[in-house]
Amino acid sequence: MGGYILRRILLMIPTIFGIMAISFAIVQFAPGGPVEQVISDLTNQSSGDRLSGGTEMSQELSQDSAYRGARGLDPEFIAKLEKQFGFDKPPLERFVTMMWDYIRFDFGESFFRNTAVIDLIAQKLPVSISLGVWILIFSYAISIPLGIHKAVKDGSAFDVWTSGIIIVGYAVPSFLFGILLIVLFAGGSFFDWFPLRGFVSDNFDSLAWWQKPLDYMWHMTLPLITLLLSAFATTTLLTKNSFIDEIKKQYVTTARAKGLTESQVLYGHVFRNAMLIIIAGFPGAFISAFFTGSLLIEYIFSLDGLGRLGYDSIVRRDYPIVFATLFIFSLMGLVVSLISDLIYTWVDPRIDFERRDV
């Protein structure tokens, strides 16, 4: 197993490198980079004299700039912008420098926030951790027992009506359900039971120690319900189908013939084999819960987390944040994938990755 772990860790290096290289190459062809963003902001808000730094435009102004909206601007001003954002260097040199910094976990500073990227991520992390951890706990705590019970009661009335609820929950986009909850319970047209925005109340620091967790859960109730609706649907059906496949196998019939109870058969024999496919999907669920899955929900409920930070950075072309979050979550995904393989061997000792070709 030690050799397998070492090979997987070594394979992470070219994988991360490939992800970052492809993303970096795509960005080079994307219009509206940070230089154009600044030019657009300045041309919309300032006069021509201020754009050239407040000096007389004695030099010949750029008429054929590579940037849209730069016509009439001082070439020296454009050159300063390029140097400020690092675009005065060739793309290959910028990429090599970026990767060398990232290997040392030096993510630089944001282009437009004047703050270290790692500090920004640390500021937004509590919101994403809260959403991600609770969604993973609740979704697995609900979907696995429900999926097992549906497998045991396959074809019954319970199985039919719960499948209907699950299918509807999966089909309805989570952001629409979130809007519905806001309209119903957050001061919309009906009840005003829950706060509309924020992670905690403005007076959170002045609350008593026992009031703080209540205030926290009060704010998190609607976002968690919104995310939970679609999060547990796939895992529930996957668990049910996996258990049904295992229940039909010969070793289950043999275990029952030996006089084992149904509980012993399900949780002593079937569970370990059926849960392998659930474990295989854990890395994707983990990354989705912490980043991609909560993007729209963070916007709807005004939660300032990593999903919102990443989206705003893409729109704003704040490349240090974009590439740093991509690097961190890609690395997290690879590490979690390795952990999932190790859990495989714990759940089913018959699996030996050491003997398999990677």
Automatic annotation (TrEMBL):
<dbReference type="Pfam" id="PF00528">
    <property type="entry name" value="BPD_transp_1"/>
</dbReference>
<feature type="transmembrane region" description="Helical">
    <location>
        <begin position="321"/>
        <end position="347"/>
    </location>
</feature>
<comment type="similarity">
    <text>Belongs to the binding-protein-dependent transport system permease family.</text>
</comment>
<keyword id="KW-0812">Transmembrane</keyword>
<protein>
    <submittedName>
        <fullName>Microcin C ABC transporter permease YejB</fullName>
    </submittedName>
</protein>
<feature type="transmembrane region" description="Helical">
    <location>
        <begin position="160"/>
        <end position="186"/>
    </location>
</feature>
<feature type="transmembrane region" description="Helical">
    <location>
        <begin position="9"/>
        <end position="30"/>
    </location>
</feature>
<feature type="transmembrane region" description="Helical">
    <location>
        <begin position="216"/>
        <end position="239"/>
    </location>
</feature>
<keyword id="KW-1133">Transmembrane helix</keyword>
<keyword id="KW-1003">Cell membrane</keyword>
<feature type="domain" description="ABC transmembrane type-1">
    <location>
        <begin position="125"/>
        <end position="340"/>
    </location>
</feature>
<keyword id="KW-0472">Membrane</keyword>
<dbReference type="GO" id="GO:0005886">
    <property type="term" value="C:plasma membrane"/>
</dbReference>
<dbReference type="GO" id="GO:0055085">
    <property type="term" value="P:transmembrane transport"/>
</dbReference>
<feature type="transmembrane region" description="Helical">
    <location>
        <begin position="129"/>
        <end position="148"/>
    </location>
</feature>
<feature type="transmembrane region" description="Helical">
    <location>
        <begin position="276"/>
        <end position="301"/>
    </location>
</feature>
<dbReference type="InterPro" id="IPR035906">
    <property type="entry name" value="MetI-like_sf"/>
</dbReference>
<dbReference type="GO" id="GO:0042884">
    <property type="term" value="P:microcin transport"/>
</dbReference>
<keyword id="KW-0813">Transport</keyword>
<dbReference type="InterPro" id="IPR000515">
    <property type="entry name" value="MetI-like"/>
</dbReference>
